[in-house]
Amino acid sequence: MHQRINPLWMYLGCSVLLLASAVLAVCIGESPIDCRTVFAIVAAHLLDPGAGYATADETIIMLIRIPRVILAAFVGASLAVSGAVLQSLFRNPMADPFILGISNGAALGASAVLLYGVSFGLGLFNLPLAAFVSGTVTILLVYELARTGNRVATNTLLLSGIAASAFMSACTSFLLFVSNENLHQVIFWMMGGFAGRTWEHVVMLLPFTLLGVGVFLTLARPLNALMFGEESALYLGVRVERLKKILLVVSAVVTGAAVAVSGIIGFVGLIVPHIVRLIAGSDHRVLLPLSVLIGATFLILADLLARLVIAPAELPIGVITALCGAPFFVYLLRSRRGAA
Amino acid sequence: MNRLDVNAVGYAFGSKTVLDGVSMTCAEGELVGVVGPNGCGKTTLMRCMAGYLVPDAGSIAYNGRPLRDLPPRECARIRAVVEQQLVTPFDFSVYEYVMLGRTPYLGRFGSETTEDHRYVEDALGLTGSSPFRDRLIGTLSGGELQRVMIARALAQRPGILLLDEPTSHLDVRYRLEIMHLLRDLGGERAVVAVLHDINDAYAFCDRVLLLRQAKAVAFGPPAEVLTAGALSDVFGVVAHPLEHPGTPAPVLSFTLPTPVRRRRAGRIVVIAGGGSGRHVIASLVHEGYDLRVGVLNEGDRDLELARSLGCPALTEPPFSRIGQGSLDALRDWCMDADAIVLAAMPVGEGNLGNLVVAEELLGTKPLVLFARDQTFGCLDFTGGRGEEAYRSVAQGAPVASSVGELLGLLEREIPKAPSLSGAEE
Amino acid sequence: MMRTALFCVTLVLLLTTAGCLQATDDAAATLAVTDDTGVQAVLSTPVARVVSLAPSETEVVCALGMDALLVGKTDYCNYPPKIEGAQSVGGPKTLNVEKIIGLQPDLVLATTVTDTTKIEGIRAMGIPVLIFRLESLEDIHRNIETVGTVLDCPDAAAALVGRMQEREANVSAARHPAEPAAVLYVLWDDPLYVAGNNTLQDDLIRRAGGVNIMADAEGYVVASDEAVLTRAPDVIIASTSHTAGTAPIKDRLLARSVFADVPAFRNGHIVTIDADLANRPGPRMVDTLELFAACINA
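The joint structure predicted for all components is written out below.
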């Protein structure tokens, strides 16, 4: 018997979970600030947004922890929802937001900046912009490679993505190899993380995440139809080629923006959609919003762990996402299989 | 009034023409079958009719409106398609899957109305899928899956229903159930199904389109389209129509045509009846003998076989006594033949003449009696005369109890006939 | 992070293997030396051809006046600026083993940062390689003395170490303020990659009378903004890289408004030191120490 929980309860549960992890992540950190102080600070600044940051605690809460938590939530939501969408678009459980080479493309852009001083004269935003541009250009290139006339065959797309990915990765390796200097910077960037992220980064990512999540949520029904193949979707009245184009462009932009502000954080976009499918099924009207919530929660908690495990130092967040996500996923997979 | 019109449709994959001027129609209340050998363009035609492929030539119309003018969403409210198979790596429940059929009616937001749920329930009920409505798609058997796919199509409330080989992977029971379902569905809809099984097309369809190498061979009622000649042309098989007590239409049985390689020569007349000559006729034709079959009543099983193998036969109307004219003709054939085979058959007043002719020719012509055993009594329904005749034939001529033995005897009995077996090997 | 891990792990090894240098006098033609990784190398003396695979080792050899013995160095050995007769054998990642072997060295000098697969390749050809683990000024002294021994110039080595120790003692002896300055050493700003315990810079900060605010982390680590804010460093010393395409590291740090109230930011105590000087564990490290002391006690 196949019985699922009412989605409303799941939304509620996941929202509570998200809120709880956000509160937890704001309250816990390297410097011990008790929860009451945290709430007082947050309340004060909510009531008077223009107030300055008189104490170190205020700076830590308002300028370090909160933007970091929000950024982690945005990135987690963006990657998870893009992953869910691309898995359905390609009908491939192995798909993730980086499947068409956006990560390797972005890494090449970042390496060019970090190793060779390619500059757009934007100071702090040089690196995110370079990563974003090179990432999305890679996807456009892949799309053009796979396009014949007005149609794009998803298999060709997947293969050109793999080819472009490998090519970009080789270019980056070459740059790293011949450069010898600043290597750790590129490595840090590629491992991703939220160290030193500020409100500026949040503002940078905000429109992309909102746009992406918004667009994807309106496409939940056509996405359901697409799960059984493009031909099948067409027979259900879906404009398949247009849908594919929208999904690709939006996921590329959203992922590109996330990568630009946080580097390459693996695993979230691959595993979160599967976790949601296991607990809530494959209906995109439930899958997408839950991926947003769980992706955000997952990355907030992962970042919290990354900050805490070897404090005062930080672990790369990718280590946490894989270390915690993989066993949990395997557990879910096995317990589901036993139940089925 | 729902109808599908396909008018002189042409389609090519690159330089390979897959469809060439194919036309057909399907009106409401009709079940039209599309039949043809693998690679004849059936599925391509289906995809053109469904709007997935755009024909290079000709036109397709739903309810009189050209398909190319219909937006996909509107299209999906008029016609539904059941594809050959359903492939997805993700789990969906049957109910959710069938609800997808409501996609063309639902907006971006907002959930399904009670009406949508009712249509889904109806579709599940109509296809008998309700019992497994909560199961996951991946756990269904082939027959269940096929029903569920049809249910999804029905949830679209289509006036035109297109199905691509809906029974090809199914066990016989499921296959028949699905075919019955399709015929029932035809009531309020125009239904077109690409069919793998010619008998299904014969038995269930109102009209059949027979395709061969991108072209339509014939389109019309099954009995007119699926003739032995057409099937032989298109599929390269010999079709034997067999009357079947359970169905109004005959059941076709298929064999490969006689091998071209002829190993033996010689003209043989087979006297048989009631199925006694079945093995003999088939084997001798396959061996390459030039065969004629002695006087048989219409409807006799041996006669059907002889005809399907292209052997000339002397016939009488059903259940009537063999007339003198036929017996004379039989005698003439026998005199003209290199050998005669008498396949021991049940003998009554009506066909005793056959036996008498054979008995007369003893010693005149090489004759072999083919009988499984020598208990002629149970074959005799004439009160002794038949048995007597069999006994005298059995004394005057060699008896074969198996086909192998018969072939050996014939080779010996036709010494003058040039054997081609040496030339072959 | 790999490097951090490496440093952590190897610290233990360092403590157990320190002082294993032993010259065997009975065999006049050979010299057995155990290096910092515990591997014993047998050299035939006198050593006449040396290849250095690390800028710090190049500096040591030259500081001992043995430039003439140096037949190979890396692309990044930029001090002293010109070394007659020494050919380049590639960069840290692009060491050309064939070329190194072709130079027919009697001895190859390397550090624990050198590519170990390349070292294995060289050792496989029977060429002795000495690997030095350099995480403090003491390590550098030992490195100089060992090189002095194997290159048969122990007096020069002793003199060099003596001069260094004298200057180090001067730094330590200088009058420190009652409240020692909280110091953060930054290698890279995004993420903040800083020196923790058991690093060269940690040693320098201590000797210069400061307190490394990240001393509770092992090796080089990524520090959270929060840690920096909470620990409120009075002085930040950052190394500058030559090729970074972004703005100078000091400007990048100053652009971080989060740190506006950190004393070092508020008082403008952010000092940059050339990366070659700040991060290279050679004889010039004592210059770096004096720079650190000047920054910390300013």
